[in-house]
Amino acid sequence: MGGSAERSRIYLASYDPDWALMFTQLARQIRQTLGDKVVLLEHVGSTSVPGLAAKPVIDVVLVVEDSTDEAAYLPPLEAAGVTLQFREPEWFEHRLLRASTVQTNIHVFSAGCEEIGRMLLFRDCLRVRKDERRLYEQTKRDFARRAWKDVQAYADAKSEIVTTILSRAAAL
Fold first, then answer.
1. What's the CA angle centered on 134, arms 133 and 136, to 5 degrees?
2. Global model pTM greater than 0.85
3. Structural domain tally of the chain?
4. What is the CATH number of the domain that holds 151?
5. Which of 9, 95, 113, 161 could bridge across to 108 with cysteines, CB 3.0–4.6 Å?
6. Which residues pair with 88 in a beta bridge?
7. b/e map of 125-159 (b: 16 or more CB within 10 Å)?
8. What are the pLDDT digits (tens) for 12-57?
9. What are the CB-based long-range contacts (under 8 Å, 24+) for 131-138?
10. Whole domain around residue 120: which residue ranges?
């Protein structure tokens, strides 16, 4: 295949207990930097689920009062080595940040955003429901064997299984 397809292969690593330690260190840095501006800070995504293979990128949900008020949280984070990657105003006013110290996606949302609960429910379901965790991992492994236009295409492809697992989790 061509070069661009090769660049878009997805690498899944076996679960690494160090991922939790990486999150703890990053969370400490964010809390020290932002103090009481942090409404909620959670480790989410596959690296937050013991036993689950994942892309070795720590996903973090950072909840602030208003994600659109970047002046309230972004300058101190930038001074600490965190950079803004992009804004998604059409998707819950989401901001994606990356830390320089750890491979990470820091998802910034405003307090009260419904996506936060969805992400936490999905994580918690995978942590306690071995059958759902296995199903999700198998789906991810199947998709990781393919070449994708970009990482977002891979993430979008997983949306059907995520929705299915979330609907079952919500019914519990």
1. 65
2. yes
3. 1
4. 3.30.460.10
5. 95
6. 94
7. bbeebeebbebbbebbeebeeeebeeeeebeebee
8. 999 999 999 999 999 999 999 999 999 999 999 999 999 999 999 9
9. 132/165, 132/168, 132/169, 133/49, 133/51, 133/52, 135/161, 135/165, 136/52, 136/161, 136/162, 136/165, 137/52, 137/53
10. 3-170
| Distance (Å) of CA 89 to CA 3, 20, 150 | 32, 30, 21
Could you read off the pLDDT of 40-50 as tens digits, one per residue? 999 999 999 99
Instruction: Give the span between the Cα atoms of 102 and 63, in whole angstroms.
Output: 19
- Identify the residue whose tokens are 């949302």: 109
CB distance 40 to 63 below 8 Å:
yes
